[in-house]
Amino acid sequence: MHLRFVGIDPNTGDGESPTVWVDEDNADLVFQGWKADDETTEGCLKTGGIPDHEAVVRVPARMIHIIREACDAAERAQLR
Fold first, then answer.
1. Which of 21, 66, 67, 70 could form a disulfide with 30 if both were Cys (CB 3.0 to 4.6 A apart)?
2. Which domain holds residue 18?
3. Residues 23-45: pLDDT tens digits?
């Protein structure tokens, strides 16, 4: 696996904030985010279950430009 770091929450203070990477082997996006609170999880469950091997994470809107960059990198990885 070759993870390419794309960006971290610009408001990070201690380096342990939401982060985005692209797996350059398969173009998957990899997110580190805040664990979803109960209200968010309940809202997600309205559209289907969350398997034990999956998680709901929250990434702040201020990271949209970073996520767009990750999507562009993922598309480029698929073109190889």
1. 21
2. 3-79
3. 989 999 999 999 999 999 999 99
